[in-house]
TrEMBL record:
Record-stated family: Belongs to the DoxX family.
GO cellular component: plasma membrane
Membrane topology: Multi-pass membrane protein
Main location: membrane
Keywords, comma-separated and alphabetical: Cell membrane, Membrane, Transmembrane, Transmembrane helix
Chain segments annotated as transmembrane: 12-31, 51-71, 78-97, 109-128
Pfam families (alphabetical): DoxX
Entry protein name: Putative oxidoreductase
Length: 134
């Protein structure tokens, strides 16, 4: 049974926390690894370097959209492939636990599921521009 009185606030809490995580993740790529360093890392994985810049842009824009509640369902759906890409290109071979060397796939998989939950749940309370059918 869904408690319709508190569900919008649950969606808000999930939405804002997911947005903050994306901004932190993009910030790490930008401020710690630098955009050029992130591009080189992508290239070391056999991915095109410019994909790193696109990934940072998607993480930043989706993070802001989630925090503000601007088409949050769409932002959640758009970012799931980013995390699936991280699982299959970086983390899968490291095992399940994120504490393994180079990080396992546990954390990005949970994050992707949380984004799917957000997309299904809707924008929640205080969304500035709710997605359709929110």
């Amino acid at each position: 049974m869904i408690d319709t009185r508190t569900a919008p606030y649950a969606a808000l809490l999930l939405r804002v926390s997911l947005g903050i995580l994306f901004l932190a993740h993009a910030g790490m790529k930008f401020f710690v690894f630098t955009p050029a360093g992130t591009a080189k890392f992508f290239e070391s994985l056999g991915l095109p370097g410019p994909l790193a810049y696109a990934t940072m842009l998607v993480e930043t824009l989706a993070g802001i959209a989630l925090i503000l509640g601007v088409y949050a369902r769409i932002a959640a759906l758009v970012t799931i492939p980013v995390l699936l890409g991280a699982i299959f290109t970086v983390h899968l071979q490291n095992g399940f636990f994120f504490t393994n060397a180079n990080g396992g796939w546990e954390y990005p998989a949970f994050w992707a599921v949380a984004l799917a939950v957000q997309a299904l749940l809707g924008d929640g309370a205080y969304a500035l521009k709710p997605s359709a059918r929110s």
